[in-house]
Amino acid sequence: QVQLQESGPGLVKPSQSLSLTCSVSGVSISSSAYQWSWIRQDPGKGLEWIGNIYYTGTTYYNPSLGGRVTLSLDTSKNQFSLRLTSVTAADTAVYFCARDSRLFNAWFDSWGEGTLVTVSS
Amino acid sequence: EVVLTQSPGTLFLSPGERATLSCRASQRINNNYLAWYQHKPGQAPRLLFYDASKRAAGIPDRFSGSGSGTEFTLTIDRLEPEDFALYYCQQYGRSPRTFGQGTKVDVK
Q: Which residue of B has its CA nearest to A95?
């Protein structure tokens, strides 16, 4: 059974960087069959796909984040990570990691429970 | 990007009733690349349907998905207590993948 678990600081100061990690169990993130995504839920704007990463390190990002996003992975720990720079209050959200069901035109077939990140001084 | 509009925002129903949730796309969704998710607070979202009408593993058959083009529907027959939750649609036909704003099914 695939399980994903987000972890990281719950409070980040404005203009600083937000860093989260997703720990995956039940499947190797080195599998060539899947990509791995980050999604966030802003109470005012709903769900927003942030980006995804393949085991080769290839990444795709949502243009709406304006180049502030970097995804990376650590195959030895079966984890992948999100870094969002220059955060503002608008980045306050619940952040989810999820598995893409396939390489292209994919839905999300497994999700973590999410972690709340608040941007505040 | 493709904008998904879900309606209604909240649906107030009683157990045993039928819920009909709508998801309308701003552009035609090729190949009916549309998914539905159920989300309860503090839990991981749960995949219900993909390709508009293909039921995910373990989803009861009181749930059904339908539609094509720009109009999609999630129907829940005979609501059970555990079905009261937030429901999202999501398109994966065009990048970036986008979600609707959600419909909450609440107890009347």
A: B44
**Phi and psi for A85 in degrees, rounded to 5?**
-95, 165
- The conformation of residue B107, written as its DSSP 8-state character, comes to E
- Going by C-alpha positions, the residue among A69, A70, A71 that lies closest to residue A79 is A71
pLDDT at position A44: 75
Compute the distance between CA of residue B105 and CA of residue A104 in angstroms, rounded to an integer.
31
Cβ atoms of B30 and B93 closer than 8 Å: yes
Query: Mind listing the pLDDT tens digit for each residue in A23-77?
Result: 999 999 999 999 999 999 997 778 999 999 999 999 999 999 989 999 999 999 9
CB contact under 8 A, B99 and A46: yes
Q: Are residues A112 and B44, on separate chains, in Cβ contact within 8 Å? A: yes
**Whole-number pLDDT of residue B59:** 98
Candidates B93, B84, B89, B92; CA nearest to B102 is B89
Q: For residue B13, list its beta bridge partners.
A: B107
- The answer to whether residue B100 neighbours chain A at the CB level (below 8 Å) is yes
For residue B12, give every residue at least 6 positions away whose Cβ sits within 8 Å of its Cβ, in sequence order, or none: B106, B107, B108
Q: For residues A73 and A58, give the distance between their C-alpha atoms in angstroms, rounded to a whole number.
A: 10
Average pLDDT over residues B6-34: 97
Give which of A30, A33, A69 is closest to A51, Cα–Cα.
A69
Q: What's chain A's length in residues?
A: 121
Q: How far apart are CA A74 and CA B75, in angstroms?
A: 41
Token look-up 């001084």 returns: A121
φ and ψ of B82, to 5 deg: -80, -5
